[in-house]
Amino acid sequence: MPELIRHLFCFMDSSTSPSPFLVELRDLTFGYGERVVLDGVSLSVPRGKVTALMGASGGGKTTILRLIGGQNRAQKGELRLYRDGGFDDVGKMDLKQLYAARRRMGMLFQFGALFADLSVFENVAFPLREHSDLSEGMVRDIVLMKLNAVGLRGSRHLMPSEISGGMARRVALARAIALDPELVMYDEPFSGLDPISLGTAARLIRQLNDSMGLTSVFVSHELEETFAIADHVIILANGKIAAQGKPGDVRRSEDPLVSQYVHARADGPVQFHYPGPSVEEDFGVSPSPLKPVSGRGGWT
Q: Which domains does the chain have, with CATH numbers?
């Protein structure tokens, strides 16, 4: 009997053990028209960690957030979201399943995207009223708790036009966590913030992730703040993953493209000019070297 019980518990442990990853991309391809943005990308988002998506503009970072949320669907491959002992392909969900999946997610849009005609309190209360049957007393308590978590409980009566950009981003964060999601996504949460507000936003992402047991994915171009709070960094380039790993490992990468990015070098694999016809082809001139003109102090 003891042997039977031991085998039973081993079986239960292996079948109910949650995946260490909450989101997985498997050989995923997506593009806009003829332009391929993600080309056979495979990556995993660790559960309970802060993952940063980085890389040059147009590399597919925000597109990955849109694919996770089901706004876009993969043209090839899978985007899988873990639930109840297994993974579901977001791209194959019907509308009802997609809405249920989105309830497990919070989203902080770039620049906040608050409702301009609703107060701070009403902005945070909005998802609670839309997606729950909680009493007004319970809504009030939850809203004030979320605002308190971002340091803005005293601003509940203000309108979005009466608060700063940094405060608006924090209100949007309170709204994003109102339904206690498993996954919170941030689209460039540091963009346009002054150094104090930027530091506050970075600290909040880290603290809320750890205190609430969240999984966080954020898009960022701010190297120092991102490397300071992220557990896992993924750098996208040319439709592929150029590098991924712990911040220190990525910073030490010898890949020319990654090195150019993390050290903010102007020269490297990423060129200043977008590929196109040569200057000679566009302007109909033949190339000729410039030569100094003797006695005129000029060039020809």
A: 17-104+181-299 (3.40.50.300)
For residue 4, pLDDT over 80 is answered with: no
pTM listed for this prediction: 0.78
**235-245 pLDDT, tens digit each:** 988 888 888 89
pLDDT single digits (tens) 232-283: 999 988 888 888 899 888 888 878 888 878 777 766 676 666 677 877 888 8
Sign of CA dihedral 147, 152, 153, 155: negative
Q: What is the DSSP letter of 155?
A: G
The yes-or-no verdict on residue 63 having pLDDT over 80 is: yes
